[in-house]
Amino acid sequence: MKLIDDMPEDWREGSFLGRLLLAEGPTPVLLRRGEVLDISATAPTTAQAIARGHTASLTGNNLGPLDALPLNDDSALPRLLPPLDLQCVKASGVTFAVSAVERVIEERARGNPGAARTIRAALAERVGSDLSAVKPGSSEAEALKSVLIEEGLWSQYLEVAIGKDAEIFTKAPVLATVGWGDQVGVRSDSAWNNPEPEIVLVCDPTGTVVGATLGNDVNLRDIEGRSALLLGKAKDNNASAAVGPFIRLFDETYGIEDVRNAVVSLTVTGKDGFVMSGQSSMRLISRDPLDLAAQTCSSSHQYPDGFALYLGTMFAPIDDRDAPGQGFTHRTGDEVCVSSPRLGVLRNRVTACEDAPPWTFGISALMANLAGRGLL
User: Fold this and answer.
1) Which tens digit of pLDDT belongs to each residue from 133-145?
2) Collapsing DSSP states into helix, strand and coil, what is residue 253?
């Protein structure tokens, strides 16, 4: 597996921000016109690089062309790290119509995949599977809400799908994400789970969107399905937040319209020969990406080191992997590829959370490393 094969189709033209693990420690780098620049002397973290503004104008020590660096997914150095460091990692949920219906199914099934098929058919007959024509927070949405309540079909998931307030939650602690080539974790006590291929916005401390990357918001459907109050256990686990390979910075080659028009693809390849694929079109998102960013950072909540925001997915796999009606769930060893032509490929292999490398390098360790290198 070579990183260069998973880069965006126009990676020599755009500007990308990322992190490498060098012998000295974690190092922010800027990829510009195919060359990798070590920018740690002026911006010791990617969060600081973004906060400076005009990130694409940063300069640094040239480490050479990206395709000449021996970057891969093993323990050799240099090694690609996830591009986020001090940014808070947030996520928005139920932002697509299909996703909204599947969340209702999870809630009704109480985490039982066998019951999901019957509930899915009944709900589609009563409500339909397409809520995309309803603008969240609109008068039409309020009218639909009233009808659903009268019919006993209202759900907390439909509230955030068509109500005025988006679901925004914290996906992972600072420095806890995993990147391209890393293992991604699924709790061993989960029997119904799936990847969630998403675009992740990256924002500066003012909430301004400055770039985007790919993400896998690993989801444990059985645990969240038992109760929405178990969202933390379902979403925030060791190695459960994947991002990368790089942050594509907004410039003349890529911007928010490219995010709005992106198609995110997913392929899962199992050691058992099972293959699942699908796509998620950002044109079908119910809430505009900039609205989701604005609902995350406002006068009621600030992020002085900036934040990353998973935008949600319409992809909720229902393909049967084992017994009929049981739907899809991960197995150890699954290779998961999240891709979009302008952002590249985020490639990970599934393992149990307990078997993934433990998260040990936190904020204190990073500050000590940067101070020891004279970068603070």
Assistant:
1) 667 888 877 877 7
2) coil
